[in-house]
Design a protein that fits this description.
Pfam families: DUF1501. This is Sulfatase. The chain has 14 helices and 17 strands. It is α/β, with parallel strands linked by helices. The strands form five sheets. Strands 1, 4, 5, 6, 7, 8, 11, 12 and 15 form a nine-stranded mixed beta sheet that branches. The chain has a two-stranded antiparallel ribbon with strand order 2-3. A two-stranded antiparallel sheet has the order 9-10. The protein is globular and about 75 Å long. It starts with a helix and ends in a 15-residue tail after the last strand.
Length: 476
């Protein structure tokens, strides 16, 4: 054996860490034990621990109700009384049969398809003048979430940026959680941001049973089937010692200290996560309020309850994707909010699945005194046009004038901001670009979108790129 062979370690540090992954809880650590551990990041990063932003915050956390596919603003929050007259005259305009009525002290107009959400009109800040950049689903979804319209250059999402800026309030749970089916873009990656900003995707949260009849865990692979917790603790201590030794001579670089904190958090998650996701602890009255047990609302009801439980436990950013229709409603399951055809059949189905759970979430947060510092977002990547060029009573993609709403977190309740034209084809008053929306959400969280930057690949990145203005008119 040569001197070089004698000096070479029998197993590399990276290899050891990779082989140790199974002993640390798959869900919590899939995003932690990757090559990014030793990747050459371009700048030192702050730790995962909670810290203040650039200015006093109005909101501490975000619940992001993600209606991907593009809900029809014309049939939910932006009434167009002339649509039916136009529909009688033109084949490419679809009628809008759903009635709008005024609600709350604000007199906000809300569709009859959302009777539960309408009861919270005075808590909603409805922006009818949203403007995007593209009418392609994947690109538009990526744009809303990342500030970049193309998805061929992966970049972090708003959730990653919020965690990077503020850290995590919870000692036992991830800072960024997605509840439900996977989304575009993939939030389980942090890309050039530190690995500890990655999101954890929790799949189907509805109660299921194992083959033996026992309740199935809501989170699979959380506990290790090969090692006891005591053995995992020993393994984690070994990795900590190795990391600390490696970091000792690199005091100017805090990436490994952040990684050590992430390992510890992941280990604690094995104990705390099952409790956090266990909605059986909720009262029957709460479960009924959300719509648990009802065929149309059960799935999203459970997701919304878990979102509130995440918020209570200090999770910084919770993403709640929309609830797909069941197999029995084939057209609704195929299209979701993307109502290219039969809009007046599909939109009521999707509204029914989400209206009660979302309203209950708002009520629950308010009752617990959490709505004031929890920013709730509802919306998709774009809205819909007045009709379809191919007929079939549908509505096409429309990024030029659509609606989202914010609630809580320092926003003005009962406000309708902005205006679109007679057919909602474009903004005619107070345009809010996607970059403006993201800048405003960061501002509410105490983050300056121009100061929240990260150096990578020779340039400084921002969520809002070189654009964006805070919309102060929607802030209390």
């Amino acid at each position: 054996m040569s001197q070089d062979d004698q000096d070479r370690p029998l197993i590399s540090r990276r290899s050891l860490l990779g082989r140790s992954a199974n002993g640390l809880g798959a869900l919590a650590l899939t995003s932690l034990l990757q090559d990014s551990l030793l990747a050459a990041e371009q700048s030192a990063a702050p730790s995962i621990n909670a810290r203040p932003g650039h200015h006093p915050a109005k909101a501490k956390r975000v619940i992001f109700l993600w209606m991907s596919g593009g809900p029809s603003q014309i049939d939910t929050f932006d009434p167009k009384p002339d649509i039916n007259k136009l529909a009688a005259e033109k084949k490419d305009v679809t009628e809008a049969p759903f009635k709008f009525t005024q609600h709350g002290e604000s007199g906000m107009w809300v569709s009859e398809l959302l009777p539960h959400i309408a009861q919270h009109a005075d808590d909603l800040c409805v922006i009818r003048s949203m403007k995007g950049e593209t009418n392609t689903h994947e690109h538009a979804q990526t744009f809303v979430m990342t500030g970049v319209p193309q998805n061929n250059s992966p970049v972090p999402t708003i959730g990653n940026w919020v965690v990077y800026g503020l850290g995590c309030e919870s000692e036992n749970l991830p800072a960024f959680v997605s509840i439900g089916q996977k989304t575009n873009p993939d939030i389980s990656e942090s890309f050039f941001l530190p690995a500890w900003t990655q999101g954890v995707v929790v799949g189907d949260t509805r109660a299921k049973k194992l083959k033996n009849g026992d309740p199935a865990p809501l989170i699979s692979n959380l506990n290790n089937s090969w090692l006891s917790q005591a053995q995992q603790r020993q393994q984690l201590d070994l990795i900590r010692q190795m990391n600390e030794a490696h970091a000792a001579g690199r005091t100017a670089d805090d990436r490994l200290n952040a990684r050590i904190e992430s390992f510890e958090r992941a280990f604690r998650m094995q104990v705390q996560a099952p409790d956090a996701f266990d909605i059986s602890q909720e009262s029957e009255a709460t479960r009924q309020m959300y719509g648990v047990g009802q065929p149309e609302t059960d799935e999203y009801a459970q997701r919304c309850i878990i979102a509130r439980r995440m918020a209570e436990r200090g999770v910084r950013f919770t993403l709640v994707p929309f609830s797909q229709a069941p197999e029995s409603q084939k057209l609704a399951r195929m299209y979701g909010w993307d109502s290219h055809e039969q809009n007046n059949t599909l939109t009521p189905i999707l509204c029914k699945r989400h209206d009660q759970p979302i309203a209950a979430l708002l009520a629950d947060l308010k009752q617990r005194g959490m709505l004031d510092d929890t920013l709730v977002f509802w919306g998709g990547e774009f809205g819909r046009t007045a009709g379809s060029r191919v007929g079939k009573a549908g509505r096409e993609h429309n990024c030029n004038g659509y609606t989202i709403f914010l609630a809580g977190g320092g926003t003005k309740g009962g406000l309708v901001y902005g205006k679109t034209g007679d057919t909602a084809s474009g903004v005619v008053e107070n345009e809010v670009h996607v970059h403006d929306l993201n800048a405003t959400m960061l501002h509410l969280l105490g983050l300056d979108h121009e100061q929240l930057t990260y150096q990578a690949s020779g340039r400084r990145f921002r969520l809002t790129d070189v654009y964006g203005n805070v919309v102060h008119d929607v802030i209390n």
